[in-house]
Amino acid sequence: MSPRMALFSLTAALLYFGPFLSGLTGAPMTSALIFLAVYLLWVVLLRPRSWARTETQGAPTILAAYLGGLTMFQMVLIFVLFSLGRGLGTLLGGVIALPLILPIVLSAFAIPLGLMVREPQTGDAGAEEADQHRGTTGGAEAE
């Protein structure tokens, strides 16, 4: 794994740590909507290749289905992380006294960090390395 890909993975971990920490603090479940917005912004800004692929397929229903599926997946992921944090807080005998804004800012801060780490040519961190890992080159399937 290249150093750039390792840094990008750390920024993603920072993004996912926010809902977990929010659960530990005893925040209301409605804060998940804020994390959903942060996650979708992450995908739009840091995964331009996936958007370009979806847009070139032509049909707006494909884009809507992609966005709907992505939103549902992110909501489930946020709920699981939030629940794990809440469960760990319960097991430890209480919640951590932190303001609600701290986990949100922590997750949102991952976006500018990810933008600084990503590959300037392709827009993805470690995109060529990931393509080689999947057996593709230049975004096209290997034949």
Using only C-alpha atoms, the radius of gyration works out to 17 Å
Largest sheet: none
Count of individual helical segments: 6
Question: Approximately how much helix is present in the residues?
Answer: over 70%
Structural class, by secondary structure, is mainly alpha
Order of helices and strands: HHHHHH
Low-confidence stretches: 126-134, 136-143
Terminal CA distance reads 25 Å
Number of strands: 0
Oligomer: single chain
Shape: globular
Summed over residues and divided by their number, the pLDDT gives a mean of 79
Share in β-strands: under 5%
What is the strand and helix layout of this fold?
Layout: H1 3-24, H2 32-46, H3 48-56, H4 60-91, H5 101-117, H6 127-134
Helix pairs in contact: 1-4, 1-5, 2-4, 2-5
Distinctive features:
mainly alpha, globular, 6 helices, 143 residues
What's the gist of this structure?
The chain is an all-alpha fold and about 140 residues long. The protein has 6 helices and no strands.
Your description of this structure?
The protein is mainly α and 143 residues long. It is built from 6 helices and no strands. It has helices at residues 3-24, 32-46, 48-56, 60-91, 101-117, 127-134. The longest helix has 32 residues, at 60-91. The chain is globular.
